[in-house]
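Supplementary Methods. Inverse-folding protocol.

Structures were first reduced to a discrete structure-token string of length 436. This string, shown here, constituted the complete conditioning input.
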């Protein structure tokens, strides 16, 4: 494709005053106007003919094998001319709605008829990222014509949960514990199993003394217990309309998936079994439980396939289906959100039913937008109204969360940036206290 540059347009209009003046002074010379325009067009065509040929340009686009939603990635674009080449060319990349190109247009300086450019990419939604088109254009030697070429790379890359941030956070958590050293900690209580007998030492729990064995051995002997492993951990994610609303630049469900995968990574490392369950108006995913660190890639692929939904969440169908699939006591981690106490009634009813058999860890994001409205100093009457409404909504959220705690649920309410670490800390606390 060939089209004029700004210089050619300015040159064409620059002759207009002269042509008008000549036309007024000598009307029979009106053809000079057409001649001027034709001369500019001829120069533009000559410039395009002298420019580097699009057929001699080779464009290559390379992108990472997968992209993590909410993270950042780079695509490498290389250009090479065979024969004559311009000093620079402009590049533009067209993508679908799963990606945002940080710099839509770049100027690439060529050295030795070749050059490379790094294009920043920001994945914003899970799914398939498509690199739909690639434009390159350059000027002729006179600077009057643009020569443009458009390619269709046909490159498709999966946009998955941001595994890199999950690994970094998990390594940070484990490294923090490792830095303090490893200490054997024996826990007693419901959910532990007998490990061995040992001579009683100062500081041991008096309840661990085995009086019969002490009488037999003639000295105080205590029982050692170890925490049970192989517990089923079910990550139940609400994928309904409210969970697809954006928070901190990403849909809530993407923040939830990142936190859930972080917990899955830690749980598998600690010997527990993990399963995924997703539901909106009906159950969408039920993976069953799996164990071992090697199962994490499977959970990652399953989580990447969880779609965005515009349907209302049916807590009765979703949680009843989940409860019917569990044949032993499990830790059920429920990720959800609610708008008001009325819409939360069915959720409360079904979570309470789950609590009769299972340990429920209820995870909800703090509504930082409402909190900012409450804390914002009023500048006009409308600010006062907004602050009062926001305060009322926060009080209603606290009522629902309070009812969950009184029913026996463990509640994690955290900002988006702390959702994963706070969830892992609550899980580790539940294991320490042997709540399972």
């Amino acid at each position: 494709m060939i089209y004029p540059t700004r210089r050619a347009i300015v040159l064409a209009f620059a002759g207009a005053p002269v042509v008008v003046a000549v036309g007024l002074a000598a009307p029979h010379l009106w053809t000079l106007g057409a001649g001027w325009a034709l001369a500019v067009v001829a120069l533009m065509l000559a410039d395009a003919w002298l420019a580097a040929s699009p057929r001699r340009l080779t464009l290559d686009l390379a992108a990472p094998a997968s992209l993590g939603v909410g993270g950042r990635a780079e695509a490498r674009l290389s250009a090479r001319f065979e024969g004559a080449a311009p000093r620079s060319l402009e590049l533009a990349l067209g993508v679908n709605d799963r990606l945002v190109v940080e710099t839509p247009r770049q100027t690439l300086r060529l050295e030795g008829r070749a050059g490379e450019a790094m294009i920043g990419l920001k994945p914003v939604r899970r799914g398939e990222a498509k690199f739909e088109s690639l434009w390159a254009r350059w000027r002729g030697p006179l600077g009057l014509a643009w020569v443009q070429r458009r390619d269709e790379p046909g490159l498709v890359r999966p946009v998955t949960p941001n595994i890199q941030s999950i690994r970094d956070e998990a390594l940070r958590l484990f490294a923090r514990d490792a830095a303090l050293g490893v200490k054997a900690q024996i826990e007693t209580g419901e959910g532990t199993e007998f490990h061995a007998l040992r001579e009683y030492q100062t500081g041991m729990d008096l309840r661990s003394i085995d009086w019969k064995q002490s009488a037999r051995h003639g000295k105080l002997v205590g029982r050692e217990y170890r925490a049970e492993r192989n517990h089923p951990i079910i990550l139940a994610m609400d994928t309904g309309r409210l969970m697809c609303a954006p928070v901190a630049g990403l849909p809530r469900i993407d923040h939830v998936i990142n936190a859930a995968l972080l917990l899955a990574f830690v749980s598998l490392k600690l010997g527990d079994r993990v399963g995924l369950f997703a539901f909106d108006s009906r159950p969408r995913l039920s993976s069953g439980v799996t164990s071992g660190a090697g199962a994490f890639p499977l959970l990652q692929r399953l989580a990447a396939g969880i779609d965005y939904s515009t349907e209302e969440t049916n807590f009765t169908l979703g949680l009843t289906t989940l409860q019917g699939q569990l044949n032993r006591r499990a830790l059920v981690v429920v990720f959800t959100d609610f708008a008001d106490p009325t819409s939360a009634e069915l959720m409360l009813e079904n979570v309470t039913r789950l609590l009769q058999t299972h340990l429920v860890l209820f995870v909800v994001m703090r509504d930082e937008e409402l909190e900012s409205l409450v804390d914002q100093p009023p500048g006009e009457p409308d600010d006062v109204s907004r602050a009062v409404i926001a305060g009322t909504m926060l009080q209603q959220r606290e009522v629902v969360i309070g009812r969950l705690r009184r029913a026996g649920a463990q509640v994690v309410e955290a900002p988006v940036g702390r959702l994963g670490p706070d969830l892992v800390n609550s899980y580790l606390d539940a294991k320490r206290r042997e709540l399972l």
